[in-house]
Amino acid sequence: MSTTTTAAPITVLTNIQDPEDTKNVYYQSGGYRLSRPVLEGANAKRTFDSIPTVDVSNIFSPDLEVRKAIAAEVAKVCEEVGFFYAANPPVSKDKMEAAMEIIKTFFRLPQEELLKLHVDNSQGVKGYLPFAFRDGRRCRASYSLGRDYTNPEQHFVQKASEGTVPLNQWPDEVLPEFRTIIYEYYQEVFVFARKMLQIFALALGLDETDLDDTFRFPLNDITMQYYPVQDPNEQSSIVPHADYGGFTLLYQDNVGGLEVLNANGAWVPAPPREHSYVVNTGSYMEVLSNGRFPATVHRAFGNPRVDRFSLPFFYNPDPNVMVAPHPKLVTEGQAFQPQDVSRRQIKGLMTNRPHHPFFAKLRALGLTDEELTFDLVTKPLAEIEAQYGKK
Protein backbone atom coordinates (compact mmCIF):
# COMPACT_ATOMS: atom_id res chain seq x y z
CA MET A 1 0.00 0.00 0.00
CA SER A 2 1.17 3.54 -0.63
CA THR A 3 0.30 6.63 1.36
CA THR A 4 1.48 10.18 1.80
CA THR A 5 3.25 10.40 5.14
CA THR A 6 4.07 13.55 7.07
CA ALA A 7 7.26 13.97 9.07
CA ALA A 8 5.41 14.51 12.37
CA PRO A 9 6.62 11.99 14.96
CA ILE A 10 4.29 10.16 17.30
CA THR A 11 3.98 12.10 20.55
CA VAL A 12 4.35 9.82 23.55
CA LEU A 13 4.03 10.20 27.30
CA THR A 14 6.97 8.23 28.64
CA ASN A 15 6.82 9.47 32.24
CA ILE A 16 3.71 8.20 34.02
CA GLN A 17 5.13 8.65 37.51
CA ASP A 18 3.00 10.74 39.86
CA PRO A 19 5.42 13.56 40.89
CA GLU A 20 3.70 13.92 44.25
CA ASP A 21 3.85 10.20 45.04
CA THR A 22 7.33 9.19 46.16
CA LYS A 23 6.12 6.00 47.81
CA ASN A 24 5.16 4.17 44.60
CA VAL A 25 6.65 3.50 41.16
CA TYR A 26 4.22 3.63 38.24
CA TYR A 27 4.35 1.52 35.08
CA GLN A 28 2.17 0.11 32.31
CA SER A 29 1.14 -3.52 31.94
CA GLY A 30 -1.62 -4.97 29.79
CA GLY A 31 -2.73 -1.46 28.83
CA TYR A 32 -3.24 -0.40 32.45
CA ARG A 33 -1.36 2.07 34.65
CA LEU A 34 -0.22 0.16 37.71
CA SER A 35 2.07 0.90 40.63
CA ARG A 36 4.50 -0.84 42.97
CA PRO A 37 5.35 0.40 46.46
CA VAL A 38 8.89 1.53 47.22
CA LEU A 39 10.04 -0.64 50.14
CA GLU A 40 13.02 0.29 52.29
CA GLY A 41 14.59 -0.70 55.59
CA ALA A 42 12.66 -3.27 57.59
CA ASN A 43 9.90 -3.30 54.97
CA ALA A 44 12.23 -4.29 52.10
CA LYS A 45 11.83 -7.69 50.52
CA ARG A 46 14.57 -10.07 49.52
CA THR A 47 14.98 -9.34 45.83
CA PHE A 48 17.61 -8.89 43.12
CA ASP A 49 20.04 -5.99 42.84
CA SER A 50 21.80 -7.15 39.66
CA ILE A 51 20.93 -9.12 36.52
CA PRO A 52 22.07 -12.77 36.67
CA THR A 53 23.87 -14.64 33.87
CA VAL A 54 23.17 -18.01 32.29
CA ASP A 55 25.77 -19.52 29.97
CA VAL A 56 23.87 -20.91 26.96
CA SER A 57 26.89 -22.06 24.94
CA ASN A 58 25.71 -25.69 25.22
CA ILE A 59 22.07 -25.02 24.38
CA PHE A 60 22.30 -27.33 21.34
CA SER A 61 24.12 -30.09 23.21
CA PRO A 62 22.93 -33.56 22.15
CA ASP A 63 22.87 -34.49 25.83
CA LEU A 64 19.43 -33.81 27.33
CA GLU A 65 20.92 -33.60 30.83
CA VAL A 66 23.16 -30.72 29.72
CA ARG A 67 20.13 -28.87 28.32
CA LYS A 68 18.20 -29.58 31.52
CA ALA A 69 21.04 -28.05 33.55
CA ILE A 70 20.73 -24.84 31.52
CA ALA A 71 16.97 -24.98 32.00
CA ALA A 72 17.35 -25.30 35.79
CA GLU A 73 19.36 -22.06 35.83
CA VAL A 74 16.77 -20.38 33.60
CA ALA A 75 13.95 -21.49 35.91
CA LYS A 76 15.67 -19.95 38.93
CA VAL A 77 16.38 -16.57 37.32
CA CYS A 78 12.93 -16.34 35.70
CA GLU A 79 11.20 -16.97 39.01
CA GLU A 80 13.43 -14.60 40.99
CA VAL A 81 14.16 -11.84 38.44
CA GLY A 82 12.45 -12.28 35.07
CA PHE A 83 15.56 -10.97 33.31
CA PHE A 84 18.92 -12.61 32.65
CA TYR A 85 21.96 -12.42 30.40
CA ALA A 86 22.21 -15.30 27.93
CA ALA A 87 25.99 -15.45 27.59
CA ASN A 88 27.79 -17.10 24.66
CA PRO A 89 24.67 -17.54 22.52
CA PRO A 90 24.72 -19.62 19.30
CA VAL A 91 24.61 -16.47 17.19
CA SER A 92 27.71 -15.31 15.34
CA LYS A 93 29.39 -12.39 17.10
CA ASP A 94 30.40 -11.02 13.70
CA LYS A 95 26.79 -11.09 12.49
CA MET A 96 25.58 -9.41 15.67
CA GLU A 97 28.11 -6.63 15.27
CA ALA A 98 27.38 -6.25 11.55
CA ALA A 99 23.66 -5.91 12.28
CA MET A 100 24.33 -3.25 14.92
CA GLU A 101 26.55 -1.25 12.58
CA ILE A 102 24.06 -1.34 9.71
CA ILE A 103 21.18 -0.11 11.87
CA LYS A 104 23.36 2.83 12.94
CA THR A 105 23.87 3.62 9.26
CA PHE A 106 20.15 3.17 8.61
CA PHE A 107 18.99 5.64 11.26
CA ARG A 108 21.43 8.23 9.93
CA LEU A 109 19.80 8.22 6.50
CA PRO A 110 18.06 11.46 5.49
CA GLN A 111 14.64 11.80 7.11
CA GLU A 112 12.92 11.92 3.72
CA GLU A 113 14.34 8.47 2.91
CA LEU A 114 13.30 7.04 6.28
CA LEU A 115 9.76 8.36 5.90
CA LYS A 116 9.39 6.44 2.63
CA LEU A 117 9.45 3.37 4.88
CA HIS A 118 6.91 4.72 7.40
CA VAL A 119 4.76 2.09 9.13
CA ASP A 120 1.63 3.60 7.57
CA ASN A 121 2.78 2.08 4.27
CA SER A 122 2.61 -1.47 5.66
CA GLN A 123 -0.62 -3.29 6.51
CA GLY A 124 1.34 -5.08 9.23
CA VAL A 125 2.69 -1.81 10.69
CA LYS A 126 6.27 -2.70 9.79
CA GLY A 127 8.82 0.00 9.02
CA TYR A 128 10.05 3.31 10.38
CA LEU A 129 8.39 5.30 13.16
CA PRO A 130 9.74 8.42 14.94
CA PHE A 131 8.65 9.32 18.48
CA ALA A 132 8.82 12.59 20.43
CA PHE A 133 8.34 13.78 23.98
CA ARG A 134 5.26 15.93 24.53
CA ASP A 135 7.33 19.11 24.22
CA GLY A 136 8.26 18.11 20.68
CA ARG A 137 11.84 16.92 21.27
CA ARG A 138 12.84 13.56 19.80
CA CYS A 139 12.99 10.70 22.29
CA ARG A 140 13.62 7.78 19.93
CA ALA A 141 12.87 6.21 16.56
CA SER A 142 12.21 2.60 15.62
CA TYR A 143 12.30 0.40 12.54
CA SER A 144 10.48 -2.92 12.71
CA LEU A 145 10.34 -6.02 10.56
CA GLY A 146 8.88 -9.37 11.38
CA ARG A 147 6.99 -12.43 10.26
CA ASP A 148 6.51 -12.06 6.50
CA TYR A 149 6.45 -15.32 4.62
CA THR A 150 6.49 -13.53 1.27
CA ASN A 151 10.19 -12.91 2.00
CA PRO A 152 12.33 -15.81 0.64
CA GLU A 153 14.66 -15.38 3.62
CA GLN A 154 11.84 -16.67 5.87
CA HIS A 155 10.94 -19.71 3.78
CA PHE A 156 12.93 -21.90 6.18
CA VAL A 157 9.93 -21.38 8.48
CA GLN A 158 7.00 -21.16 6.05
CA LYS A 159 6.11 -20.00 2.53
CA ALA A 160 3.28 -17.55 1.99
CA SER A 161 0.33 -18.57 -0.15
CA GLU A 162 -0.15 -16.84 -3.48
CA GLY A 163 -1.66 -13.37 -3.17
CA THR A 164 -0.36 -12.73 0.36
CA VAL A 165 0.38 -9.05 0.96
CA PRO A 166 4.04 -8.31 1.81
CA LEU A 167 4.48 -6.56 5.16
CA ASN A 168 8.17 -5.75 5.59
CA GLN A 169 9.75 -2.71 3.94
CA TRP A 170 13.39 -2.31 2.89
CA PRO A 171 15.69 0.62 2.04
CA ASP A 172 16.95 -1.18 -1.07
CA GLU A 173 17.55 1.96 -3.12
CA VAL A 174 19.66 3.85 -0.59
CA LEU A 175 21.08 1.02 1.56
CA PRO A 176 21.01 -2.17 -0.56
CA GLU A 177 23.22 -4.20 1.81
CA PHE A 178 20.82 -3.62 4.73
CA ARG A 179 18.46 -6.50 3.92
CA THR A 180 21.23 -9.07 3.47
CA ILE A 181 23.02 -8.15 6.70
CA ILE A 182 19.83 -8.03 8.77
CA TYR A 183 18.53 -11.35 7.43
CA GLU A 184 21.87 -13.10 8.01
CA TYR A 185 21.51 -12.03 11.63
CA TYR A 186 17.76 -12.68 11.82
CA GLN A 187 18.03 -16.29 10.67
CA GLU A 188 20.52 -17.16 13.39
CA VAL A 189 18.70 -15.40 16.20
CA PHE A 190 15.42 -17.04 15.12
CA VAL A 191 16.98 -20.52 15.45
CA PHE A 192 18.36 -19.52 18.86
CA ALA A 193 14.93 -18.28 19.98
CA ARG A 194 13.25 -21.48 18.83
CA LYS A 195 15.69 -23.52 20.92
CA MET A 196 15.37 -21.09 23.84
CA LEU A 197 11.64 -21.82 23.84
CA GLN A 198 12.43 -25.49 24.49
CA ILE A 199 14.71 -24.49 27.35
CA PHE A 200 11.78 -22.56 28.86
CA ALA A 201 9.65 -25.71 28.52
CA LEU A 202 12.26 -27.78 30.36
CA ALA A 203 12.54 -25.01 32.96
CA LEU A 204 8.85 -25.44 33.69
CA GLY A 205 9.24 -29.20 34.14
CA LEU A 206 7.57 -29.90 30.80
CA ASP A 207 8.76 -32.06 27.95
CA GLU A 208 11.15 -30.15 25.72
CA THR A 209 8.67 -29.79 22.85
CA ASP A 210 5.53 -29.08 24.89
CA LEU A 211 5.41 -25.38 23.92
CA ASP A 212 6.35 -25.87 20.26
CA ASP A 213 2.79 -25.92 18.90
CA THR A 214 1.98 -22.63 20.63
CA PHE A 215 4.86 -21.01 18.69
CA ARG A 216 4.73 -23.07 15.47
CA PHE A 217 4.58 -19.99 13.22
CA PRO A 218 5.51 -17.32 15.75
CA LEU A 219 4.75 -13.62 15.56
CA ASN A 220 8.42 -12.82 15.80
CA ASP A 221 9.55 -9.25 15.35
CA ILE A 222 12.75 -7.22 15.33
CA THR A 223 12.22 -3.62 16.41
CA MET A 224 15.46 -1.69 15.98
CA GLN A 225 15.66 1.25 18.36
CA TYR A 226 17.54 4.54 18.07
CA TYR A 227 17.84 6.83 21.12
CA PRO A 228 19.30 10.28 20.33
CA VAL A 229 21.52 12.06 22.86
CA GLN A 230 19.32 12.86 25.84
CA ASP A 231 19.49 15.27 28.78
CA PRO A 232 20.81 13.36 31.85
CA ASN A 233 17.80 14.49 33.89
CA GLU A 234 15.30 13.47 31.21
CA GLN A 235 12.48 10.98 31.60
CA SER A 236 12.91 7.50 30.12
CA SER A 237 12.54 7.23 26.35
CA ILE A 238 10.20 4.25 26.69
CA VAL A 239 7.48 4.19 29.33
CA PRO A 240 8.13 1.69 32.16
CA HIS A 241 6.31 -1.45 31.03
CA ALA A 242 6.17 -5.24 30.99
CA ASP A 243 6.39 -6.96 27.59
CA TYR A 244 3.22 -8.63 26.37
CA GLY A 245 4.73 -11.42 24.24
CA GLY A 246 6.47 -14.73 24.83
CA PHE A 247 10.03 -13.60 25.47
CA THR A 248 12.56 -11.07 24.21
CA LEU A 249 16.20 -11.42 23.18
CA LEU A 250 17.77 -7.97 23.43
CA TYR A 251 21.12 -7.17 21.84
CA GLN A 252 22.43 -3.80 23.09
CA ASP A 253 25.24 -1.59 21.85
CA ASN A 254 27.99 -0.67 24.33
CA VAL A 255 26.21 2.46 25.61
CA GLY A 256 23.55 0.99 27.90
CA GLY A 257 20.38 2.49 29.33
CA LEU A 258 18.15 -0.45 30.26
CA GLU A 259 16.81 -0.70 33.82
CA VAL A 260 14.69 -3.40 35.50
CA LEU A 261 12.26 -2.88 38.41
CA ASN A 262 12.74 -5.12 41.42
CA ALA A 263 10.27 -6.12 44.12
CA ASN A 264 11.23 -3.15 46.29
CA GLY A 265 10.40 -0.62 43.60
CA ALA A 266 14.08 0.06 42.86
CA TRP A 267 15.48 0.34 39.34
CA VAL A 268 18.37 -2.08 38.63
CA PRO A 269 20.68 -1.35 35.66
CA ALA A 270 21.16 -4.01 32.95
CA PRO A 271 24.39 -2.79 31.34
CA PRO A 272 25.64 -4.24 28.05
CA ARG A 273 27.75 -7.39 28.07
CA GLU A 274 29.84 -8.60 25.16
CA HIS A 275 28.34 -11.40 23.05
CA SER A 276 25.30 -11.69 25.28
CA TYR A 277 21.57 -11.14 25.06
CA VAL A 278 19.37 -9.72 27.76
CA VAL A 279 16.45 -12.16 27.96
CA ASN A 280 13.11 -11.38 29.58
CA THR A 281 9.76 -13.11 29.71
CA GLY A 282 6.52 -11.45 28.57
CA SER A 283 2.89 -11.74 29.60
CA TYR A 284 2.14 -14.70 27.30
CA MET A 285 4.94 -16.68 28.96
CA GLU A 286 3.53 -15.62 32.32
CA VAL A 287 0.20 -17.15 31.28
CA LEU A 288 1.72 -20.31 29.77
CA SER A 289 3.78 -20.86 32.93
CA ASN A 290 0.69 -20.34 35.11
CA GLY A 291 2.40 -17.41 36.79
CA ARG A 292 5.77 -19.03 37.50
CA PHE A 293 7.65 -16.82 35.02
CA PRO A 294 6.20 -13.31 35.43
CA ALA A 295 6.66 -10.48 32.96
CA THR A 296 9.07 -8.03 34.60
CA VAL A 297 8.79 -4.24 34.38
CA HIS A 298 11.62 -2.33 32.70
CA ARG A 299 12.43 1.02 31.07
CA ALA A 300 15.11 2.47 28.78
CA PHE A 301 16.97 5.78 28.57
CA GLY A 302 19.02 7.59 25.99
CA ASN A 303 22.53 8.72 26.88
CA PRO A 304 23.61 12.33 27.61
CA ARG A 305 26.78 12.08 25.50
CA VAL A 306 26.28 9.63 22.61
CA ASP A 307 23.48 8.07 20.58
CA ARG A 308 22.24 4.69 21.77
CA PHE A 309 21.03 1.75 19.65
CA SER A 310 19.42 -1.57 20.56
CA LEU A 311 18.16 -4.57 18.66
CA PRO A 312 15.40 -6.54 20.42
CA PHE A 313 14.03 -9.77 18.93
CA PHE A 314 10.50 -10.57 20.13
CA TYR A 315 9.37 -14.20 20.01
CA ASN A 316 5.60 -14.38 20.38
CA PRO A 317 2.96 -17.12 19.99
CA ASP A 318 1.46 -18.22 16.70
CA PRO A 319 -1.55 -15.96 15.98
CA ASN A 320 -3.72 -19.01 15.34
CA VAL A 321 -3.58 -20.26 18.93
CA MET A 322 -5.34 -19.56 22.20
CA VAL A 323 -2.89 -18.99 25.04
CA ALA A 324 -3.68 -20.49 28.42
CA PRO A 325 -1.66 -22.12 31.20
CA HIS A 326 -0.14 -25.33 29.89
CA PRO A 327 -2.41 -28.24 30.90
CA LYS A 328 0.39 -29.93 32.83
CA LEU A 329 0.77 -26.83 35.00
CA VAL A 330 -2.91 -26.27 35.84
CA THR A 331 -4.13 -27.19 39.30
CA GLU A 332 -7.39 -29.09 39.73
CA GLY A 333 -10.38 -26.77 39.58
CA GLN A 334 -8.34 -23.77 38.47
CA ALA A 335 -10.30 -21.32 36.32
CA PHE A 336 -8.66 -19.26 33.57
CA GLN A 337 -9.62 -17.30 30.48
CA PRO A 338 -7.72 -18.33 27.31
CA GLN A 339 -6.28 -15.40 25.34
CA ASP A 340 -6.96 -15.17 21.61
CA VAL A 341 -3.60 -14.14 20.12
CA SER A 342 -5.03 -13.24 16.72
CA ARG A 343 -7.69 -10.85 17.99
CA ARG A 344 -5.45 -9.38 20.70
CA GLN A 345 -2.75 -8.69 18.13
CA ILE A 346 -4.89 -6.84 15.62
CA LYS A 347 -6.72 -4.91 18.34
CA GLY A 348 -3.38 -3.86 19.77
CA LEU A 349 -2.20 -2.65 16.36
CA MET A 350 -5.42 -0.73 15.78
CA THR A 351 -5.25 0.86 19.23
CA ASN A 352 -1.62 1.90 18.86
CA ARG A 353 -2.06 3.18 15.29
CA PRO A 354 -5.65 4.52 15.22
CA HIS A 355 -5.03 6.68 12.12
CA HIS A 356 -3.26 4.01 10.07
CA PRO A 357 -4.84 4.02 6.56
CA PHE A 358 -5.41 0.26 6.46
CA PHE A 359 -7.11 0.15 9.85
CA ALA A 360 -9.25 3.15 8.93
CA LYS A 361 -10.51 1.14 5.97
CA LEU A 362 -11.24 -1.86 8.18
CA ARG A 363 -13.27 0.36 10.49
CA ALA A 364 -15.15 1.77 7.50
CA LEU A 365 -16.17 -1.77 6.59
CA GLY A 366 -17.85 -2.10 9.98
CA LEU A 367 -16.18 -5.39 10.93
CA THR A 368 -17.26 -6.89 14.23
CA ASP A 369 -14.84 -7.94 16.97
CA GLU A 370 -15.27 -11.54 15.83
CA GLU A 371 -14.36 -10.61 12.26
CA LEU A 372 -11.24 -8.64 13.24
CA THR A 373 -8.46 -11.22 13.13
CA PHE A 374 -4.74 -10.89 12.51
CA ASP A 375 -4.81 -12.71 9.17
CA LEU A 376 -6.53 -9.65 7.66
CA VAL A 377 -3.18 -7.80 7.53
CA THR A 378 -1.87 -10.27 4.95
CA LYS A 379 -4.94 -10.07 2.67
CA PRO A 380 -5.43 -7.58 -0.18
CA LEU A 381 -7.99 -4.94 0.74
CA ALA A 382 -10.08 -5.82 -2.33
CA GLU A 383 -10.35 -9.40 -1.07
CA ILE A 384 -11.42 -8.18 2.37
CA GLU A 385 -14.05 -5.90 0.84
CA ALA A 386 -15.35 -8.75 -1.29
CA GLN A 387 -15.55 -11.02 1.77
CA TYR A 388 -17.29 -8.62 4.12
CA GLY A 389 -18.95 -6.17 1.75
CA LYS A 390 -18.81 -2.40 1.94
CA LYS A 391 -21.02 -1.80 4.96
Widest sheet, order of strands: 1-6-7-8-15-10-13-5-4
Query: Which ranges are low-confidence, i.e. pLDDT below 50, for 5 or more consecutive residues?
Result: none
CATH architecture: Sandwich
Averaged pLDDT: 90
Characterize the main sheet: 9 strands, mixed
CATH topology value: Jelly Rolls
Shape descriptor: globular
Strand/helix succession: EEEEHEHHEEHEEEEEEHEEEEHHH
Number of helices: 8
Q: CATH homologous superfamily, by name? A: B-lactam Antibiotic, Isopenicillin N Synthase, Chain
Distance between the termini: 22 Å
| Gyration radius, in Å | 21 Å
CATH class: Mainly Beta
**Percent of residues in helices:** 25-40%
Structural class by helix and strand composition: alpha+beta
- Tally of discrete structural domains: 1
Organism: Sporothrix eucalyptigena
Domain Fe2OG dioxygenase: 218-317
Keywords: Iron, Metal-binding, Oxidoreductase
InterPro entries: DIOX_N (IPR026992), IPNS-like_FE2OG_OXY (IPR044861), IPNS-like_sf (IPR027443), Iron_ascorbate_oxido_reductase (IPR050231), Oxoglu/Fe-dep_dioxygenase_dom (IPR005123)
Distinctive features:
single chain, 391 residues, alpha+beta, Jelly Rolls, nine-stranded mixed β-sheet, four-stranded antiparallel β-sheet, oxidoreductase, iron, IPNS-like_FE2OG_OXY, Iron_ascorbate_oxido_reductase
3D architecture notes:
With 391 residues, this protein is of the alpha+beta class. It has a single domain (10-341), classed as Jelly Rolls. It has eight helices and 17 strands. The protein has helices at residues 64-80, 93-107, 111-115, 177-203, 283-288, 341-352, 357-364, 381-388, and strands spanning 10-11, 24-29, 32-37, 53-55, 83-87, 127-132, 138-146, 221-227, 238-241, 247-252, 258-261, 267-269, 276-281, 298-300, 308-315, 322-323, 339-340. The strands form four sheets. Strands 1-6-7-8-15-10-13-5-4 form a nine-stranded mixed β-sheet. Strands 9-14-11-12 form a four-stranded antiparallel β-sheet, with no helix packed on it. Strand 6 (127-132) and strand 7 (138-146) form a beta hairpin. The mean pLDDT is 90. Belongs to the iron/ascorbate-dependent oxidoreductase family. Keywords: Iron, Metal-binding, Oxidoreductase. Pfam families: 2OG-FeII_Oxy, DIOX_N. It comes from Sporothrix eucalyptigena.
